[in-house]
Amino acid sequence: MTGNCRALLAELNLRGEMAEKPSILRRLVKPLLSGAAAARSETATNLREFSARRLPLVWLLATVIGLVVAVAAIVFREAIGLVQLPWLGTASEEVVSAASGVPPVVIFLAPVVGGLVVGTLLQMVQPKQRTLSVADVMEARIRGGRKLPFWPGISSAAITVLSLGSGASAGREGPVVHLGATLGSAICERFRLPDSARRVLFACGVASAVSASFNAPIAGTIFAHEVVLGHYAFSAIVPIVLSAVVGTLLTRLWFGDIAAFVIPEHQITSYWEFPAFALLGATCAVVAILFQFSLIATDWVARHVSMATWLRPVVGGAGVGAIAVVFPEVLGVGYETTDAALKNNLPLTLMLTLLVAKTAATAITLASRFGGGIFSPSLYLGAMAGGSFGLIAASAFPELASSEGLYSILGMGAVAAAVLGAPISTTLIVFELTGGYALSIALLLTVAVAYGINQAVHNHSYFQRQLEMRGLFVQEGPHRGLIRAKRVMDFMDLPDKDAEPQRLDAGDETPVLLPSDTLERALQLFDSGGRSRLPVVDERDRGQIIAWADQVRALRYFNKALIDASIEEHR
Question: What predicted TM-score, i.e. pTM, was given to this entire model?
Answer without folding.
Answer: 0.81
